[in-house]
Amino acid sequence: MPDPSAVFGREASSRPSRASLRTAVVWDVLKDALDRRVEATGKDSLDVLDTGGGSGNFAVPVARLGHRVTVVDPSPNALFALERRAAEAGVADLVTGVQGDIRGLFDVVGREEYDTVLCHGVLEYVDDPAEGVRNAAAALRPAGSLSLLAAGVGGAVLARALAGHFTEARHALDDPAGRWGAGDPVPRRFTAEQLTELADGAGLRVGSVHGVRVFADLVPGVLVDTEPGAAEALLKLEAAAAELSSFHAIATQLHVLGEKRA
């Protein structure tokens, strides 16, 4: 299989991009889960569902590994961009875009038809996150994996405080939805405990929890872009901190990988 860095459009020896700094942790966990599923099933190509997958930030790299990916997204514009990106990557035959959302997921896809389901950046925007996770889990075959990525409360609190918006930081800390005010574009944020409870309640066995973008959103871009070796060092730091529960509380995003119980 291709090297993950090449899959995301850069050579392993090149300096990591800002985008890769934000996705590397999730991608490494996801690719490992896909590889383990391939080994467990004996299949060369898996069936993968990406709910809210938009223009294919993860769907296209997954397809480049040889897997069949169905992307469900409510935006026609995003699905058009997905089609174009898949064609440019040479995986148009492996990527299918379907208009829909996670609430009405089974209006457009079947139950228990997928080896892996991605639910990235979705739970923040749905009315009932528990229903969303249950639907994602119901689309999995037994022992299939769910990759769950959502905004973290602690990251928002820290970001607002470091920007000097202390009242907003306190508001996000106290607000049940983790919002810093009426102008907050994100309707809901989560703690690691809340996400793992949602996964457990949907019949999933949680395998790992990672903090995502622990430092990447806080480090000045000029430092990463101009200081020799800074991007590579930051990428390694992100990977090392991601697994430590002490850093989950300040991560911009939280990633949970769960496996459907038999």
TrEMBL record:
Gene Ontology terms describing biological process: methylation
UniProt superkingdom: Bacteria
Any Pfam family matching the protein: Methyltransf_23
Alphabetized GO MF terms: methyltransferase activity
InterPro entries to which the protein is assigned, alphabetical: SAM-dependent_MTases_sf
UniProt keyword Membrane present: no
SUPFAM superfamilies: S-adenosyl-L-methionine-dependent methyltransferases
Keyword terms: Methyltransferase, S-adenosyl-L-methionine, Transferase
UniProt-recorded name of the protein: Methyltransferase domain-containing protein
Species of the source: Streptomyces tanashiensis
